[in-house]
Specification:
Layout lengths: L1 H13 L4 H13 L3 E5 L19 H12 L3 E6 L4 H8 L5 E4 L4 E4 L2 E4 L7 H15 L4 E4 L3 E5 L5 H16 L7 E5 L3 E6 L4 H11 L4 E6 L5 H6 L6 E6 L8 E3 L2 H12 L1
Parallel strand pairs: 1-2, 1-10, 2-3, 10-11, 11-12
Antiparallel strand pairs: 3-4, 4-5, 6-7, 7-9, 8-9
Helix pairs in contact: 3-9, 5-6
The chain binds magnesium ion.
């Protein structure tokens, strides 16, 4: 047990981004002609909030992002699992490109577009299961997005929430086989969505449309791992996980304030 913990601690230390690596990143970023910046929202730019609408981007970060967007040759996307309506409420006032619902919706030049052609008939078959778990877990709730169903348990009693989430995942595993669906086990959310949706495939699409000589991708959650995995063999991509946990990202930063300070340096 102790040796496993030591290994994990070592692993945590190995890819925590140090000063030299940060300086190299800033240097490469400055020299690149075509940059792609992919930023998750909750847990990466803002803290998780009990009421999701409270996760407002602070003014100083709005200014930093606008400076980054305004630099020639820089393509910036917020890439989130939130519904497009939900994320638009928070970011609609900023001229930024947004990938919502794990890639199912993209906002460019102020307009939202569907990226997938899913018939969402499957949802009605899944509501009873989601509702049953919601009834068993006070303060949890179901969110219906355009192309997914999400069960949130952030506000529930933590132990019960976790237990119910495991039960929901077990039930869903038995159901998804006859559909073209997958399960995302996120930060206090369990989500069912079509197989072709995900941050990995969203990023792949961006790559098919454009070439870049420097990529920066930052996220904190299990759903960001698909994005990190896509960049595993891209030597010009820097991937960063925010916070603890095993990851496929090349580096880690401890907190959202470290992300903000890195972005500030890039905006200069
Ligand atoms: Mg996140």
């Amino acid at each position: 047990m102790s040796s496993r913990n030591e290994k994990e601690t070592l692993f945590e230390l190995v890819n925590l981004m140090n000063k030299k690596e940060k300086a190299e990143l800033i240097d490469k970023y400055g020299k690149a002609g075509k940059r792609l910046v992919l930023l998750d929202y909750d847990g990466t730019l803002v803290n998780y909030e009990l009421i999701p609408d409270d996760a407002i981007l602070p003014e100083h970060l709005v200014d930093i992002l606008i400076k980054i967007i305004d630099k020639p040759g820089t393509n910036v996307f917020i890439i989130s699992g939130r519904s497009h309506n939900d994320i638009d409420k928070l970011l609609g006032h900023i001229p930024i490109k947004i990938i919502a619902e794990h890639g199912a919706m993209i906002k460019e030049n102020g307009h939202w577009k569907n990226q997938i052609s899913d018939n969402d008939q499957w949802k009605k078959d899944f509501f009873p299961t989601f509702n049953r778990i919601t009834d068993a877990c006070p303060k949890s709730f179901v969110e219906e997005k355009s192309f997914s169903l999400t069960w949130h348990y952030r506000n529930a009693e933590p132990e019960l929430g976790y237990e119910c989430s495991r039960e929901l995942i077990q039930l869903l595993k038995g159901m998804i086989n006859s559909y073209n669906l997958k399960i995302l086990d996120g930060n206090k959310v369990v989500e069912v969505l079509t197989i072709e949706t995900g941050k990995g495939s969203a990023v792949k699409k961006l790559f098919e449309q454009n070439s870049y000589d420097f990529i920066l991708s930052i996220g904190d959650d299990a759903t960001d791992e698909e994005m990190f995995e896509f960049f595993l063999h891209q030597s010009n991509a820097i991937t960063i996980k925010v916070g603890e946990g095993v990851t496929q990202a090349r580096y880690k930063l401890n907190s959202i304030s470290e992300v903000a300070s890195l972005l500030k340096q890039l905006s200069g």
